[in-house]
Specification:
Largest sheet of chain B: 8 strands, mixed
Structural class of chain A: alpha/beta
CATH architecture of the largest domain in chain A: 3-Layer(aba) Sandwich
CATH superfamily of the largest domain in chain B: ATP-grasp fold, B domain
Structural class of chain B: alpha/beta
Order of helices and strands of chain A: EEEHEEEEHEHEHHEEHEHEHEHEEEEEH
CATH class of the largest domain in chain B: Alpha Beta
Radius of gyration of chain A: 20 Å
Number of strands of chain B: 40
Largest sheet of chain A: 10 strands, mixed
CATH topology of the largest domain in chain A: Rossmann fold
Number of helices of chain A: 10
Distance between the termini of chain B: 75 Å
Number of strands of chain A: 19
Strand content of chain A: 25-35%
Oligomer: heterodimer
């Protein structure tokens, strides 16, 4: 069945439908990872976005029960070049099409994904929607132009209540802005006794658990959309160890007085080189972000930049000069992506050990 | 880290002559590396014996030594040049081995030469089985368990500990014979017992079997700051068990989840870090298709064939960057040469599918064992790029030039289930075609997966192709279907056959309906960054990225995959042509599909199109670019063969016109032309039936040379001596004889062979040199030892050759390069054997030794600049009498089982080496050594000589005896030599058994050379001769099948040695 991808600039791409037909308006973004479509689809940082994979063959290894990064995916649409309907992998449980239908995400294949990528690269990300072949394109383009980007994505994907993931190690509160399972896995692997809290949990409630440290998770959208969280983070920093990832990194920066801005088309992929400024070593990282911390704005704060993108020189990590607080724009939990920076979790554990030893 | 300031002069080691397993990829890597080092301001000294390469051009390094890559000669270079450092990791296994030898010799310490890139520890740890295992254990990376055993019980013990299945490999057996897989103790006992008996040292290797695992490769890079990245990952379509060089390979990996991929990626990075390599490294891993279990199979601590493929597949120039890493630069300070905006420290993201197909020499060696295993057999490869698997796969199939344009072989169409399964089980180069036929016949797909252990992903995609075929057949001339077929890579020619149309009609139908491909860029970043790389591939997509410029442009066709008869020499000529075009101000556009070569480096041309060399694919580029014309004369027969259909499409061929090409290639026109020019050629005629052939042979008299018309590299060419042989040839050697493709029957003239390469500008001719062959006519020119300047012909004969050469160039109106082969009989009559209206195998050799850059001059001639205008005097370029240059062929016989090593009219060599010195003997010595022949001053020679050659052989045997060589001979030969006063060791016949048979004498290295000639009369000893030659090949003992080669050898030995002749013998 034919299906359309309509962009706010009026361009229309005709392809073939798969997945569900739950069409929604979202921000069209591209990801350059060559493996890991399942992790990407289920990464809640994509909430409100239509994801286009630049690698053309998608669906090859199906979908399995283990590689999800969330239980309920929040992607608004999935666009690929060539969909594989006969997957093969020992862990595969269903086809990508069956999965998308089940979780009610619309898909599209058979379009020139490279042409679309180049358009987004040159013009920046755009509002877009999938639509039926007979849709009134003009009307849809008009709607796209008039529609604002979402501002409540974090609320949509954060857990609604506090729950524990018990263990016998360090007590860590994970503020869930749409946290990837990968973060939970890495912390659990290191024995952390986790308490997952919703995004709007106040600082005193968090500190009431007497945590050894707090992890601020990844999450979707503009960090400035959650001012209440910025305030919470500001209160947490002097009190405990704070480790931020992706959105968590942006929130720490904002809480410390820095600024964030929207990137033209973001960083989404598994091949982003990041320099650890303290050692000069380059890490190949997994990234998924549309916003970044303004390096100039760090000047008037107590934060110092610790990591920087090798290519566009944007800020990829900061550390607080006075408190045990540090954060990364990229994803040390990988999933999907390279495991080069996994040891940042070990670093977090070391800091927990040190800080709580003297406390 | 900045580059090293404490070193200034670097010795780079090349990989030497092309053999199976070490081919043109090292010309690409080596040239890149040398240029890269010079860019950084280092003085580069190069040693490489291969004259057919770009790497040995004097412009590539500050000093180029075309000398044998041996300890002896490398030491001489080091003493003379006194380099600060040596870089061997870009010269393949040859380069690494020489580094180790130089180190062990002590010269590196003595002269203070540092090893760059991959150091000695890394080489040893990667290459030594035990050290490698220990290292893997240290870093907790799994390797298959194995043990060396001397008894069956020990083998059983091993398996009781580590489990089954295992593979048993008897030590030191011919080509790995006698081993096998064992699934249980009973099988193990049986196989191991047999294996221990077969092994001359009574030893077997027992190894956990990982056959059937997925074979995954990672190309990794590391710098001195310990930054490490993966440039490309690749998945072999054929599972573990088939050498990756012989496997169909796709990039990136297709069937791995991110978890599997990252697990293997991390392992690969851990390994390169543990080895502390500064540069590139290839890691091969085996992954269980049913779990996360994996093993490290092999690590190549250097750039390799796979890294060349990865470079072309991603656009990331591994060798160039490796060289910079070797001198201390780090990945994060080197700009990515593709985007020029990002850095080399990143991992390419690709947005297309790459398919590599190996190119096998079995079309030339029908008797070869085609079974694929752990010994690589392919001579070359093709690569293709597409936006879906089917497109990429089918483009690769039609790039192969194996007379197929689709994954379909005529021979298989009639086969039933059993026959196809038998074919599939054979596991040879045609397996993929049998699988497609199996699916076409509607048989169960899961059986294939079970039998071949190929991932179902690949099989189901081939099934998709087969389903599309059905759709095609059901909807002839349907435009929508046509569009779909093209999107999935179907060739016009294949569609045309099925729709009963002409290929051009399909092409026109497509054009009329707007079904034409666009071109996408290879940019290392999946479109994320702006990039200006002029590297494109076609696909049936929406947006075209290849923008035509306003400059005047010329398209140059490359020569496709490396095969016997069409090697790296043609790439050399193509590259020089393109360079000249660019210098002359034209935009030079290359179309080629060989990932190993220099010509497909995107920085060589103004634009590179990585496409199959077929009419339709070439036309797509031409219609977009609208060039002034196309140059076909540098791309070997591949490009020449396209000339006619391109002209049909209205394309202008630059240089020698299509009519003049045909005049040289069409038998009748050629004869008529020579007659007109009054130039003699061996008497001969064409035949389409056996009867006709017999009549012709009677008329001109035996022996005759028979061959199909339009052949390359002497394929299916034979010398026949009587009616019976001729009948057999006509019945077996040629599959189809027709009026379009008749058989040529020529008088076989015994005599000297000579060869020229020349340039014509349409009026005048310039001949840089005449080359003389050591072997008499009958041995293919590509397999002959070739000498410049000529050594044994008179000035009169030479003048005649030059005169004929000039008259042919002028008479045929050649514009550009051409090559002529001559034969001179005992009466000094000169005949023309053949004229090739194109660049030839000897162009790089002749260009290098005369200093006349033939391809450049020819290109300028094609552009309309006369020879005179270019500053050359038409006629013959005077010979260089200061030095003698010898080109020796190099064979890959040890790797091609069942191939007869006897030299004949059919070309068998894969590469060549150059030796030069002040006299013939010294030059010959170097050429022989460089081509892998050991030339010891003392030793033994085994002679087994056909009756008709005995008197000639006696002279040789005497000369061997005079310098103190021991002589072994088979009974007949021995008796004859003994009767003539020589002391001879008798060698027993094979069937006599025991330790003294010819075979055992060779196997135990009791002789250094074998001289074996074949009788014209077919008899029972011919089988023995074959075995002798094979045993020699597999034991690395040089076997000369031509007495001329043997004579050259003895000349060299005599010059090295002292002769023992009494005064009496001298008659004083």
């Amino acid at each position: 069945m034919e299906r359309l991808l309509i962009l706010e600039d009026g361009s229309v791409f005709k392809g073939t439908a798969f997945g569900s037909d739950n069409f929604r308006i979202g921000e069209l973004v591209f990801n350059t990872s060559m493996t890991g479509y399942q992790e990407i689809l289920t990464d809640n940082s994509y909430c409100g976005q239509i994801v286009l994979m630049t690698y053309p063959l998608i669906g090859n290894y199906g979908v399995n029960r283990d590689d999800n990064e969330s239980i309920i995916p929040a992607v608004f649409g999935f666009v690929v070049k060539d969909y594989c309907d006969q997957p093969n992998n020992w862990r595969s449980q269903e086809t990508l099409d069956a999965y998308l239908k089940r979780v009610d995400i619309p898909g599209l294949y058979g379009v020139d994904t490279r042409a679309i990528t180049r358009k987004l690269r040159d013009k920046g990300t755009m509002r877009a929607t999938l639509a039926n072949a007979d849709a009134d394109v003009e009307a849809i383009v008009q709607t796209l132009k008039e529609t604002d980007f979402l501002h409540d994505q974090v609320k949509r994907v954060s857990s609604s209540k506090i729950f524990p993931i018990p263990n016998r190690g360090k007590k860590v509160v994970l503020m869930d802005f749409g946290a990837k399972m990968g973060i939970v896995r890495e912390l659990s692997k290191r024995g952390c006794d986790l308490i997952v809290v919703p995004y709007n949990t106040p600082a005193d409630v968090i500190m009431g658990f007497h945590p050894d440290g707090v992890v601020l998770s990844n999450g979707p959208g503009n960090p400035e959309d959650v001012p209440e969280v910025i305030e919470t983070v500001r209160q947490l920093i002097p009190q405990t160890v704070v480790f931020g990832i992706c959105l968590g990194h942006q929130l720490i920066s904002l809480a410390c007085g820095a600024k964030t801005y929207k990137l033209k088309f973001g960083h989404r992929g598994a091949n982003h080189p990041v320099v650890d400024l303290r050692t000069g070593t380059v890490l190949i990282t997994s990234q998924n972000h549309g916003f970044a911390v303004d390096i100039d704005s760090l000047k008037n704060t107590r934060l110092e930049m610790t990591h920087q993108a090798l290519n566009d020189k944007s800020c990829e990590g900061v550390a607080h000069k006075d408190y045990p607080c540090f954060s990364m724009q990229f994803h040390p939990e990988a999933s999907a992506g390279p495991l080069d920076s996994e040891n940042l979790f070990d670093h977090f554990m070391d800091v927990l050990e040190k800080e709580n030893h003297y406390a | 880290m900045p580059k090293r300031q404490d070193i200034h002069k670097i010795l780079v080691i090349g990989s030497g002559p092309i053999v199976i397993g070490q081919a043109a990829e090292f010309d690409y890597a080596g040239s890149q590396a040398c240029q890269s080092l010079r860019e950084e301001g280092y003085e580069v000294i190069l040693i490489n014996s291969n004259p057919a390469t770009i790497m040995t051009d004097t412009t590539i390094a500050d000093r180029v030594y075309i000398e044998p890559i041996t300890l002896d000669f490398a030491k001489r270079v080091i003493y003379k040049e006194r380099p600060d450092a040596v870089l061997g990791s870009l010269g393949g296994q040859t380069g690494l081995n020489l580094v180790v030898e130089l180190h062990n010799d002590g010269i590196l310490d003595e002269c203070g030469v540092e090893i760059l890139g991959t150091d000695l520890h890394a080489i040893n740890r990667a290459e030594d089985r035990e050290l490698f295992r220990a290292l893997m254990q240290d870093i907790h990376e799994p390797v298959p368990e194995s043990a060396i055993v001397h008894s069956v019980d020990l083998a059983v013990d091993f398996c009781n500990t580590h489990g089954y299945p295992v593979v048993v490999r008897p030590a030191y057996t011919l080509g790995g014979t006698g081993g096998g897989f064992a699934d249980n103790e009973e099988e193990l006992r049986e196989i191991c017992e047999a294996g221990l008996k077969i092994s001359p040292v009574g030893q077997c290797l027992i190894e956990q079997s990982i056959a059937g695992y997925k074979e995954i490769e990672y190309e990794v890079m590391r710098d001195a700051h310990d930054n490490a990245i993966v440039v490309c990952n690749m998945e072999n379509v054929d599972p573990v068990g088939i050498h990756t060089g012989d496997s169909i390979v796709v990039a990136p990996v297709q069937t791995l989840t991110d978890r599997e991929n990252q697990m293997l990626r991390s392992a690969s990075l851990k390994i390169i870090r543990a080895l502390k390599i500064c540069g590139g490294c290839n890691v091969q891993l085996a992954l269980d298709p049913q779990s996360f279990k994996y093993y490290v199979i092999e690590v190549n601590p250097r750039v390799s064939r796979s890294s060349a493929l990865a470079s072309k597949a991603t656009g990331y120039p591994i060798a160039k960057i490796s060289a910079k890493l070797a001198v201390g630069l780090t990945l994060d300070e080197i700009l990515n040469p593709i985007t020029k905006t990002s850095y080399a420290c990143f991992e390419p993201a690709i947005d297309y599918v790459v398919t590599k197909f190996p190119r096998f020499p079995f079309d030339k060696f029908p008797s070869a064992d085609r079974h694929l295993g752990t010994q690589m057999k392919a001579t070359g490869e093709v690569m293709s790029i597409g936006r879906n698997f089917e497109e990429s796969f089918l483009k690769a199939v039609r790039s192969l030039e194996m007379k197929v344009d689709h994954v379909e072989k005529k021979e298989f169409t009639g086969m039933d289930q059993m026959q196809l399964m038998e074919k599939i089980k054979k596991n040879d180069d045609e397996r993929i075609f049998a699988i497609a036929q199996w699916l076409r016949n509607g048989y169960d797909m899961s059986v294939i997966v079970e039998e071949t252990k190929m991932d179902a992903f690949f099989i189901s995609h081939i099934k998709r192709i087969v389903e599309l075929e059905k759709e095609m057949k059901e909807h002839p001339k349907d435009i929508e279907v046509l569009k779909k077929l093209k999107t999935f890579g179907f060739a016009d020619s294949y569609i045309a056959r099925n729709w009963d149309m002409k290929e051009k009609e399909v092409y026109d139908l497509r054009k009329a309906n707007g079904i034409i491909p666009v071109f996408k860029m290879v940019d290392t970043c999946a479109g994320e960054f702006t990039s200006a790389t002029p590297y494109f591939y076609s696909s049936y997509e929406q947006e075209n990225e290849s923008i035509r410029s306003d400059k005047q442009k010329i398209v140059v066709l490359g020569s496709g995959p490396i095969r016997i008869g069409q090697g790296v020499e043609f790439d050399y000529a193509t590259v020089h042509c393109v360079e000249t075009l660019r210098k002359a101000g034209y935009e030079a556009i290359i179309i080629n599909n060989n990932p190993e070569t220099v010509s497909t480096d995107f920085s060589i041309s103004d634009k590179l199109y990585f496409e199959p060399l077929t009419t339709e694919d070439v036309m797509h580029v031409i219609e977009l670019e609208k060039p002034l014309g196309v140059i076909v004369q540098f791309g070997g027969q591949t490009a020449i063969n396209l000339a006619e259909s391109l002209v049909e499409h209205g394309v202008k061929i630059l240089g020698t016109s299509l009519e003049d090409i045909d005049r040289a290639e069409d038998r009748h026109e050629f004869e008529a032309m020579l007659k007109k020019l009054d130039i003699p050629q061996p008497q001969g005629e064409t035949a389409v039936t056996v009867e006709e052939a017999l009549v012709i042979a009677q008329k001109i008299g035996y022996p005759v040379l028979v061959r199909p018309s339009y052949v390359l590299g002497g394929r299916a060419m034979e010398i026949v001596h009587n009616d019976d042989e001729l009948k057999i040839y006509m019945a077996t050697a040629v599959k189809e004889i027709s009026h379009d493709a008749p058989i040529l029957v020529d008088k076989y003239i015994v005599g000297k062979e000579l060869e020229i390469d020349a340039i014509a500008d349409g009026e005048n001719v310039f001949i840089p040199g005449v080359m003389e062959h050591i072997e008499r006519a009958g041995v293919h020119s590509g397999d002959s030892i070739s000498v410049y300047p000529t050594q044994s012909i008179s000035q009169e004969v030479k003048d005649k050759i030059i005169d004929y050469g000039i008259r042919i160039g002028e008479g045929f109106h050649f514009i550009g390069l051409y090559n002529i082969q001559f034969i001179v009989d005992k009466e000094d009559n000169v005949y023309v054997l053949e004229v090739n209206p194109r660049s030839s195998r000897t162009v790089p050799f002749l260009s290098k030794i005369t200093g006349i850059h033939m391809s450049n001059i020819a290109t300028k001639a094609i552009l309309g600049h006369s020879i005179t205008e270019q500053g050359y005097t038409p006629g013959y370029h005077s010979d260089d009498h200061q030095r003698v240059f010898v080109k020796a062929p190099v064979f890959s016989f040890a790797k091609l089982r069942h191939v007869d090593t006897v030299l004949g009219p059919e070309m068998k060599s894969t590469g060549e080496a150059l030796g030069s010195d002040v006299n013939l003997e010294k030059a010959l010595y170097k050429a022989l050594v460089a081509s892998g022949v050991n030339v010891p001053m003392h030793g033994n020679v085994l002679l087994t000589i056909a009756d008709e050659d005995k008197s000639e052989a006696l002279q040789l045997a005497k000369r061997f005896a005079d310098i103190g060589y021991g002589i072994y001979a088979t009974k007949g030969t021995a008796k004859f030599l003994e009767e003539n006063g020589l002391f001879v060791h008798y060698a027993d016949k094979i069937e006599e058994g025991g330790d003294n048979t010819v075979v055992e004498i060779i196997r135990h290295g009791r002789v250094n050379f074998v001289i074996n000639t074949m009788s014209n009369k077919t008899n029972s000893t011919s089988r023995d001769g074959f075995v002798i030659r094979r045993v020699a090949a597999e034991n690395n003992i040089s076997c000369m099948t031509s007495l001329d080669t043997a004579e050259a050898l003895i000349r060299v030995l005599e010059s090295l040695s002292f002769s023992m002749i009494s005064m009496n013998e001298m008659g004083k």
